[in-house]
Amino acid sequence: MSDYLRPRVPGASIFFAVALAQRGSDLLVREIEVLREAVRETRAARPFRIDAWVVLPDHLHCVWTLPPRDSDYSARWGRSRRVLHGR
């Protein structure tokens, strides 16, 4: 597993690579609308800008930019995850 260092700087742009536990699955592309809705709900509650996003069958890569006075990217990932698991 990679050990990325992510900044805790308000307004930072941050790169993420996230993989499913079950590599080889096609879950992310099969359930792309659920993923999109989770991201929409998360952005409505905790805004951030999406600079880039690539969704592959079993993993994704994205770059987000946080608001000027906010450095809490983990709350956004946590909220997205809760939204996905709540479905």
List the helices and strands and how they pair.
Layout: E1 13-19, H1 27-30, H2 32-45, E2 49-55, E3 59-65, H3 73-85
Antiparallel strand pairs: 1-3, 2-3
Mean pLDDT: 89
- Strand tally is 3
Q: SSE string, helix = H, strand = E? A: EHHEEH
Helix content: 25-40%
What general form does the structure show? globular
Distance between the termini: 28 Å
Instruction: Please state the structural category.
Output: alpha+beta
Radius of gyration: 13 Å
What number of domains? 1
State the CATH superfamily name: Transposase IS200-like
CATH topology name:
Alpha-Beta Plaits
How can the largest sheet be summarized?
A: 3 strands, antiparallel
CATH class placement: Alpha Beta
What count of helical segments does DSSP give?
3
Major β-sheet strand ordering: 1-3-2
Q: Any idea what the CATH architecture is?
A: 2-Layer Sandwich
Low-confidence stretches: none
Q: Please report which band the strand proportion falls in: under 5%, 5-15%, 15-25%, 25-35%, 35-45% or over 45%.
A: 15-25%
